[in-house]
Design goal:
This protein has about 450 residues and is α+β, with helices and mostly antiparallel strands. About 25% of the residues lie in helices and about 20% in strands.
Length: about 450
């Protein structure tokens, strides 16, 4: 019996993955749980295990193809299979996530809720088939899929092809008068999804290369990051706020402790740990900031799980500090150190990047003083902690040199408004400005 292996859910907000490397080929025998392929997302690199023991019959996706969660990546002839249909994939059914449109796969006996199996661009009936992810992206950008050349199996239009057209335009076809009946049809076994027809975008000008120019291939990880950032900007109406904070007391307190702390604990007490703790405390007091957009409702999350951005030379990862409001500054400092080390040594696990409800980004670590972050979808906001700099400031009617920092908040205006965000930032400011040896414990 032939079964499908599908793209698994590799993170709470992950909706697609890119096949990095196939670890098997057609004709190979595999056991259940053997790794089939390496997959990259914007959050994690992972292996896809086999759901069955059997022989690989067909590799549906090519290396470099990006597929939505639930799309078929390969087929396998199962050993000793009966006529019953077995489970084929690890699937996510969290209500807070907005899943891509799904349609039953074209099998002899339709199975409810299975995604479209896009093996080729055209099936035996001559009707054009596209994956839900491709359909959704084309609709959002008013693209005519029939004009896009496909690079997938048998000319299938992949999500990567659509993203390329969005970035670079599609070749213009000469106008041809045709009968209405001859127009391409998007065929699905579920209720049809109509693809918006619009004039193709004008091709972007080719950037000329000169002697000394360097062409840098875009890696799968970078493509996944780009796709997630594009989705966030397309779906979430971003707004931005900034507040200035005097952290002179915090700086003096931390500097008085850092050497003895490092000697005693074995890891550094960073400024970032103080900021993360202050944000977690403010989120507990203003829980609406700790929310997500879910189509016809807003989900206010109970747990305060803070995503922190950790960069490598060619990628960005967002490990999560779970229940940050329940941790001490010391505990947060330890977890920041451990998670950053795992990222840079390639040991970060998938579950350590799941469940984030709000993101704190330490942009000040590379000298930034003002920035507007892109929201970590599907969260409702991201806070950029900028560089602490000495500036003249007025205190009690006198001008003095103070340690100042900008806190920059990007927010999803579908979920949050300026009033609640202003109060949240004001509370973070209050906590930080009152961080002293007398009223703040790191333990």
């Amino acid at each position: 019996m032939i079964e499908n292996i599908k793209m698994p859910q590799l993170g709470e907000s992950v909706t697609e993955g890119t096949i990095s490397t196939w670890l098997v080929k057609v004709g190979d025998h595999v056991n259940k749980y053997d790794p089939l392929a390496e997959v990259m997302t914007d959050k994690v690199n992972a292996e896809v295990p086999s759901s069955f023991s059997g022989v690989i019959k067909e590799l549906i996706a090519n290396e470099g193809d990006t597929l939505a969660v639930g799309e078929v990546i390969c087929t396998i002839e199962v050993e000793g299979a009966s006529g019953e249909v077995a489970a084929t994939t690890i699937e996510e059914t969290k209500p807070a996530e907005k899943a891509a449109p799904a349609a039953p796969a074209p099998t002899q006996a339709p199975v409810a809720a299975a995604p479209v199996q896009t093996i080729s661009k055209t099936d035996e009936s001559g009707k054009v088939r596209y994956s839900p992810a491709v359909l959704r992206l084309a609709q959002e950008n008013n693209l005519d899929l029939s004009l896009i050349p496909g690079t997938g199996n048998n000319g299938r239009v992949t999500r990567k092809d659509v993203l390329n057209v969005i970035a670079n335009g599609v070749p213009q076809a000469a106008p041809v008068a045709v009968e209405a009946a001859a127009q391409p049809v998007v065929a699905q076994t579920a209720p049809a999804v109509e693809v918006a027809k619009a004039p193709a975008a004008a091709p972007a000008p080719v950037i000329p290369t000169a002697v000394g120019d360097i062409e840098i291939p875009v890696t799968g990880v970078r493509k996944a990051i780009a796709a997630n950032m594009l989705r966030s900007k397309h779906e979430a109406p971003h707004a931005w706020m900034m507040i200035e904070v005097d952290v002179t007391n915090l700086v003096n307190y931390r500097n008085s402790l850092k050497d003895s702390f490092k000697q005693k604990e074995g890891f550094s007490l960073t400024f970032f740990a103080f900021f993360v703790k202050a944000v977690a405390q403010a989120l507990k007091e203003y829980p609406m900031i700790n929310s997500m957009w879910a189509g016809d409702k807003i989900i206010q999350k109970k747990d305060i799980n803070l995503s922190i951005a950790v960069a490598t030379d060619d990628a960005l990862f967002v490990p999560v500090i779970k229940n940050a409001d329940e941790k001490t500054i010391k505990g947060i400092a330890r977890e920041i150190t451990e998670l950053a080390t795992k990222v840079r040594t390639g040991k970060l696990k998938s579950d350590e990047m799941q469940g984030g409800t709000f993101t704190v980004n330490n942009t000040g670590s590379f000298g930034s003083v003002q920035s507007a972050g892109i929201i970590n979808y599907p969260q409702a906001a991201i806070l950029q902690i900028e560089s602490i700099v000495k500036r003249p400031a007025v205190v009690n009617g006198m001008i003095g040199v103070r340690d100042m920092v900008n806190l920059c908040l990007s927010l999803d205006h579908r979920v949050l408004d300026g009033f609640i965000c202003g109060k949240f930032l004001g509370r973070v400011k209050e906590i930080l400005e009152n961080t002293t040896k007398e009223n703040t414990s790191i333990y």
